[in-house]
């Protein structure tokens, strides 16, 4: 009997609040990233690094961010004309590049990506090319401006991404094209609306790229306030978005990334927020606002997500990198509860002293997922239900904390 009572409690009160919190625009997720801590990562903590400057670990308009399989972070430090490499927690490791057009030189690098071997690809935007470096920053190759038009020619590379087979994709908004190459720079394919002539995707302006586990290509269409999804052949699958600041709307979407569960995250630059969608484009969650605090942004332009669930955001005009935990399911929903009117320490004490000894929480998790698909659409249409659910949260935060602890392992 107790099991069913707790199940009902979860479905009626707890999940509605999580869904409501996930749809608010003024909420900042707090992700614990202290490697020596045992605090659940989805609850409390903050992590970011960088400031204006040209020294090691400083930035001048960071325009791109990428992460390799080992968790090392690469930043296109755009106005400093260099790439900086950091550990997963922001410790400076290396830097290379300086202003110029020669081999290994950079002029306004706008994006960066890493392949399975650790090679680094840079969208060297003002030099109209892609430059390839090895994992130590040594120059390997470049391609783009000297190629014949229509055969892999690059005019304005502002986005770059690498798929699981190490194919390299380039967003070229000037040509209204996405171009595909192998790891050596050999041209393979292109799609889009060259100079807007076809009328199929008129004024298509791809800016940032991400590839999911099936090889689908997602891009932000910056000037049209859209996200577009293409299949592996380059055929348009779907698109979503419009101009605005409501959920699912954009004001110049600039960065995009896909997590291990193929959820899509978009840096909504002028709205100073991050939005999350499922793989088909259905809105899931949003957070952020203009500002300098953790979880606030000033023109977020690029995202990168490691397989562990760590998301790195290039917060361009704040000249810093911010880190969040975006593990799938309730782990991420719980991460946006930072404003809840309750003591996190009291919740942990209650969990450790009482609820951790109960098996009921573990039994509720499958039901939690099952109910989510039914409750979210209802709550989105019923503000009063959201408000009531939010009020009930204060009574049941300890139960949520138990569920999050069971579902989200500390990394």
Structural shape:
globular
Strand order of the largest sheet: 1-24-23-22
**Which spans have pLDDT < 50 for at least 5 consecutive residues?**
1-46, 328-373, 403-411
Order of helices and strands: HEEEEEEEEEEEEEEEEEEEEEEEEHHHH
Roughly what is the average pLDDT, rounded to an integer? 76
Measured between the Cα atoms of the first and last residue, the distance is 35 Å
| Proportion of residues in helical segments | 10-25%
Largest sheet data? 4 strands, antiparallel
- Helix count? 5
Radius of gyration over all CA atoms, rounded = 22 Å
Class from helix and strand fractions: alpha+beta
Q: Tell me the number of strands.
A: 24
Question: Which band does the percent of strand residues land in?
Answer: 25-35%
């Amino acid at each position: 009997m107790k099991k069913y009572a707790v199940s009902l409690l979860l479905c009626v009160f707890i999940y509605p609040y999580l869904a409501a919190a996930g749809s608010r625009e003024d909420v900042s997720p707090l992700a614990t990233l202290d490697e020596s801590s045992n605090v659940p990562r989805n609850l409390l903590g903050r992590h970011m690094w960088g400031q204006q400057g040209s020294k090691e670990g400083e930035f001048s308009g960071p325009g791109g961010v990428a992460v390799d399989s080992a968790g090392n972070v690469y930043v296109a430090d755009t106005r400093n004309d260099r790439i900086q490499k950091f550990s997963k927690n922001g410790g400076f490791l290396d830097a290379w590049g300086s202003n110029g057009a020669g081999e290994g030189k950079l002029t306004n690098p706008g994006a960066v990506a890493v392949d399975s071997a650790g090679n680094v690809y840079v969208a060297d935007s003002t030099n109209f090319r892609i430059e390839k470096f090895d994992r130590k920053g040594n120059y390997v190759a470049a391609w783009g401006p000297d190629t014949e038009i229509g055969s892999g020619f690059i005019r304005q590379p502002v986005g770059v991404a690498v798929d699981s087979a190490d194919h390299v994709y380039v967003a070229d908004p000037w040509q209204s094209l996405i171009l595909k190459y192998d790891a050596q720079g050999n041209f393979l394919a292109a799609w889009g609306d060259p100079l807007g002539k076809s009328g199929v995707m008129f004024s298509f302006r791809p800016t940032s790229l991400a590839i999911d586990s099936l090889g689908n290509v997602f891009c932000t269409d910056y000037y049209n306030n859209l996200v577009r999804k293409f299949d592996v052949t380059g055929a348009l699958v779907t698109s979503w978005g419009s101009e605005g600041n409501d959920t699912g709307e954009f004001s110049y979407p600039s960065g995009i990334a896909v997590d291990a569960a193929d959820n899509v995250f978009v840096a909504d630059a002028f709205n100073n927020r991050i939005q999350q969608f499922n793989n088909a484009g259905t809105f899931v969650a949003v957070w952020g606002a203009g500002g300098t605090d953790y979880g606030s942004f000033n023109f977020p332009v690029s995202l990168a997500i490691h397989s562990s669930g760590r998301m790195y955001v290039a917060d361009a005009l704040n000249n810093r990198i911010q880190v969040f935990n975006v593990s799938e399911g309730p782990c991420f929903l719980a991460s946006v509860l930072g404003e809840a009117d309750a003591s996190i320490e009291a919740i942990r004490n209650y969990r450790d002293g009482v609820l951790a000894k109960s098996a009921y929480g573990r039994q509720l998790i499958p039901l939690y997922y099952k109910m989510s698909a039914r409750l979210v659409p209802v709550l989105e249409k019923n503000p009063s239900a959201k408000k009531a659910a939010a009020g009930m949260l204060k009574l049941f935060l300890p139960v949520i904390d138990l569920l999050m602890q069971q579902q989200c392992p500390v990394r």
